[in-house]
Amino acid sequence: MLVDTQGLLLKVVVSPANVQDTDGAEVLFERIKGHFPSLKHIWVDGGYKGQFIKMMKKRFKITVEVVKHAWGELKRGVWLPADAEPPIIPTGFHVLPRRWVVERTFAWLGMYRRLSKDYEEHLQVSEGMIQIAMINLMSRRLTYKEQS
After folding, report:
1. Are 65 and 42 in contact (CB under 8 A)?
2. Dist. CA 65–CA 42, nearest whole Å
3. For the chain, what is the domain count?
4. Are the C-beta atoms of 87 and 71 separated by less than 8 Å?
5. The domain containing residue 21 runs over which residues?
6. Residue 39 per-residue DSSP state
7. Is the distance from CB of 109 to CB of 128 less than 8 angstroms?
8. Which helix (H) or strand (E) holds 97?
9. What is the mean pLDDT of residues 2-17?
């Protein structure tokens, strides 16, 4: 799913579960190629790195920024020297800059019962249902703004 900085849907591609996220993102960007000429930079989660970042720069002329947790690459269960203090790793939920925008969009779409289960037999129908849900959401907000 590609959303703008406000969380509004720009493009969605539904793929089978056996397709890696990076491969799905490549399909998504192939489909929007030339449609958003001002799109120059995107934010992604940690699953998109390495070859994906190089491919996006080379094929689509888009820079990719991986949004990481504040504590970086620290992980639990890492061996340290005997005299070293273990790092303090925050626990619980933390809002990550830019990543919360797409997560909020997923939450908005999660309110639509038709999207809560995989009822569709065809991927295009699933994409269409997501688009209809977003159109409904946006039109309700426009109507609400006009009434107030």
Report:
1. yes
2. 6
3. 1
4. yes
5. 2-69+97-147
6. -
7. no
8. none
9. 94
Any domain includes 142: yes
Q: Which residue has the tokens 């426009």?
A: 142
What confidence score (pLDDT) does residue 81 get? 85
Q: Is residue 81 part of a domain?
A: no
The percent of the chain in helix, strand and coil, each rounded to the nearest 5, is 45, 10, 50
- Does residue 75 lie within any of the structural domains? no
How distant is the alpha carbon of residue 117 from its chain centre? 19
Helical residues (DSSP H) of the chain, grouped into ranges: 21-32, 51-60, 99-110, 113-116, 123-147
Q: Spell out the residues 6+ positions from residue 90 whose beta carbon is closer than 8 angstroms to its own.
A: 70, 71
- The per-residue pLDDT for range 69-128, each reduced to its tens digit, is 766 655 666 678 888 887 777 777 777 888 889 999 999 999 998 898 888 889 999 999
Burial profile 81-116: b = 16 or more Cβ within 10 angstroms, e = fewer: eeeeeeeeeeeeeeeeeebebbeebeebbeeeeebe
Residue 80 within any structural domain of the chain: no
Of 37, 65, 67, nearest in space to 52 by CA: 65
